[in-house]
Amino acid sequence: MSSTRRLFIAAALGLGLGFASSAHAQGAAERFITVSSTTSTQDSGLFGHLLPLFKAKTGIDVRVVSQGTGQALDTGRRGDADVVFVHARAQELKFVEDGFGVERKAVMYNDFVLIGPKSDPAGIKGSADIAAALKAIAAKQAPFVSRGDRSGTHSAELALWKGADLDLEKIRGSWYREIGQGMGAALNTAGGMNGYVLSDRGTWLSFKNRGELDIVVEGDRRLFNQYGVMLVNPQKHPHVKAKDGQAFIDWLVGPEGQKAIADYKIEGKQLFFPNAAQPGA
Amino acid sequence: MTVPDAFREAAGLVVDLDPRFVGIVALSLRVTLTAVLAAAAIGLPLGALLGISRFPGRSAVIVFVNALMGLPPVVAGLMIFLLLSRSGPLGSWGMLFTPSAMIAAQTLLVLPIVIALTRQTVEDLWGEYREHLASIGLTGLRAVPTLLWDARFALATALLAGFGRASAEVGAVLIVGGNIAGYTRTMTTAIALETSKGDLALALGLGLVLVCLTLFVNAAAYGASRLGARYAG
Amino acid sequence: MRADPSILPLVVEGLGFEADGRALLADVGFTLRRGRPTVVLGPNGAGKSLLLRLCHGLIAPGTGAVRWAADEGVAAGRKRHAMVFQKPVILRRSVRANLDHALSAAGTDSAGRAERTAAALVRFGLTALADAPARRLSGGEQQRLAIARAWALGPEVLFMDEPCANLDPGSTARIESLVSDLASEGVTVVMTTHDLGQARRLAERVLFLDKGRLVEDAPADRFFDAPETPQAAAFLRGDLLW
Description:
The complex is a heterotrimer.
Chain A lengths: L1 H27 L3 E7 H5 L2 H13 L2 E7 L1 H10 L4 E4 L2 H9 L3 E17 L12 H11 L3 E3 L5 H12 L4 H4 L4 E3 L4 H11 L2 E5 H6 L6 E5 L6 E9 L9 H12 L1 H9 L1 E2 L2 E2 L2 E2 L7
Parallel strand pairs in A: 1-2, 1-3, 5-6, 5-7
Antiparallel strand pairs in A: 3-9, 4-7, 4-8, 4-9, 4-12, 10-11
Helix pairs in contact in A: 11-12
Chain B lengths: L2 H14 L2 H34 L5 H11 L4 H12 L14 H37 L8 H7 L1 H17 L2 H7 L9 H10 L3 H33 L1
Helix pairs in contact in B: 1-10, 2-5, 2-6, 2-7, 3-5, 4-5, 4-8, 5-7, 5-8, 7-10, 9-10
Chain C lengths: L9 E10 L2 E11 L5 E4 L6 H9 L6 E5 L6 E2 L2 E2 L1 E4 L10 H11 L4 H14 L15 H14 L4 E5 L7 H16 L3 E5 L3 H7 L2 E6 L2 E7 H6 L4 H8 L5
Helix pairs in contact in C: 2-3, 2-4, 3-4
């Protein structure tokens, strides 16, 4: 029985140590903020480039939870993040209007590109007219992969269908496939079924499993994708680290952050274009 | 991307002991081992009690616990998430998106396995030991330490099964941990992320490491049961 | 040990037990004093094992009472009666740990445990097997360990339920001589057996049960030479009792 007792003591000790070490790990990163952001900023590698620069300057660790824009805003609404950094202007403004965010600031934009198989069954390659391209896809009923996850890219896609005077509810069929997952998963799926998919350029450039996929439509002004950042309102959620969160926002929209964004390149191509100073962005 | 590439990349990660890679493996092990220990500390005594006690509704409790062994990780994650969210009842603890939250979620996943398998093992053993233990004065709660100790090899297998479930799951840790680079990124969430980034080689490399760990755990489980069979009969 | 107040005599009065509306034991009464072995005889299902379990306190009586001279057979803070089962319950540990476990359960301190364990190993010829996994022992060795474990507790009364039921003749002979030695050392043994030869060799007194009733309670010599009841006579002749 004494050996059993030893077993229990060992288990209890192990348990204590486990939690203690977790607590220690939290204590070690003394200053941190939690940012809820989108899969595109994470998957494109932008945060991997920005965060070390910010930490070196301020000593603040930034923990990024990347989700679809809708989820990321919900995370902010619940108070589970200090800063929200997403790309869906209308939803962002509503977030602030509802009192969950303090103020929305424009940070940068990138653009969406329409990706499709090299075989191009809809015959739209090289076009710069996204509305015409979507009409062609719908007419041919060529496979199209939708994020279907309330992300910024998803809402942008829905707006594009609407802008092309297509009522998705009426025309959708088995060719229109909602997967409810992130950008990378959508690209993998499109590659697997030789379908078309709307992607942000950053994720596309850093995506490694391209297979038969390529850009078919780009350069349309309607494809621009604006990012905004907001501090979660400390009046709603008193535990929000307002000072450090604001420091991150100020850095992003200030000269250093804006330059760091412009400096981030993949294969020599700039992915994000800082425009914090541009009115109405 | 070819399979040999994936193997080469995986080997490179292991051989170079890439610090980010080592961090991910270490975090995965720390979270899962702590969760298994916590589940053992709670589940072994509870399972043993359930095995030796008789009360109205006991069958219902047993069926319920057995069913929970199939609890989808995502649901376990969601429950912990709702508890720990700043808008949830334990929000003031500030535990969401931390390794502690992942430990809590995995504990919830492993606990039913530990309780159910302990209950079964201890109940069988108790059938055999009951009269002798009562004869020397060990009745009720006092019988539990003896039963747990004598069932140690079978229980070790139960704990290893729990370890397997926890180390392989991605749904719960992703929801409550947030897959934060360098902080709550585990092997499984990293595999999911690299897959979504289309870096299938790296994902497969990490997957291979995970498979090796699982193999190791299973070999240990098999060894323990063999050793137990030889020693305890 | 002998200075402790005795738990004997044991007085059993009007003892009865029912299960599922069937009387398994009814109106059994006898008094047990310190002495040579008492053997409980009777056909299958007569209630022999049940009687031992009721006396040992493993089962609560339905009716009647089991009264020790000292309350519940506990004297000087220790339970002074022990039991050995037909199929010995051997823990999944070493021989030594099996002994240690029972002593620990009885509240013996660590020095006392070491001393009693060593004494039991020597007394029952188990020293060479002390560190062997107990479950790997042969049937005879396991039963010897079970008796050693009960003996280590220092019982005044030892209940044994068919201790030789599954053993070969050599092991049976060895267990019988152990029982005889224990009786000589002052342990009062109450045992059941199917083996009439064994009963003749060991018993000083016979309790003969039939269909849950105590039919005959007699000195062994008289019981075997001149049974008083037709059931006992038939049993000794080997007739089936239905």
